[in-house]
Amino acid sequence: MKLKKLFYVVIGCIAVGLGALGAVLPLLPAFPFLLLAAYCFAKSSERLHKWFTNTRLYKNNLESYVQGRGMTRKTKIRIMVTVTLLMSVGFLMMDQVPVGRIVLGCVWLFHILYFCFRVKTIKADCPETYTADRRNLQ
């Protein structure tokens, strides 16, 4: 395996791990790490890329976004509510750390603004308007 491909595999695996942690830790966002994992696996290994793109997590949350269509309102709301609830726990636990609360509040605000204004909202019953051409990702 070439060194460059090995690098992408390692970074992809780390990104999947961080994305999984981001699902439960309030300060760590899962979405960008999962996007990074998809990119790295597409650059490194067809087998890893197929595995990752066939996971339920990818199909439910990232597939339409990666294809350039956006996300359904339900997916966007689910992500924003989950992040808000998890960040609220961290915010409450930082009652003695005002700087931590400020940082956490800024991260939360950026997250909400990003999903509201930068990620396109698509209808759930919308027919596929774009096809994934994964050769362009490689």
Label the structural class: mainly alpha
How would the global form be characterised? globular
Largest sheet: 2 strands, parallel
What share of residues are in beta strands? under 5%
* SSE order, one letter for each helix or strand: HHHHHEHHE
Number of domains: 1
Q: Helix content range of the residues, please?
A: 55-70%
Number of distinct beta strands: 2
Q: Residue ranges: pLDDT <50 for 5 or more in a row?
A: 127-138
Written account of the structure:
A two-stranded parallel ribbon has the order 1-2. The chain is globular. With 138 residues, the chain is mostly helical. Helix 1 runs antiparallel to helix 2 (31-44) and helix 2 (31-44) runs antiparallel to helix 3 (46-53). It is 67% helix and 3% strand. The chain has seven helices and two strands. It has helices spanning 3-22, 31-44, 46-53, 56-61, 63-66, 73-93, 98-117, and strands spanning 71-72, 121-122. It starts with a helix and ends in a 16-residue tail after the last strand. The longest helix has 21 residues, at 73-93. It has one domain (3-125).
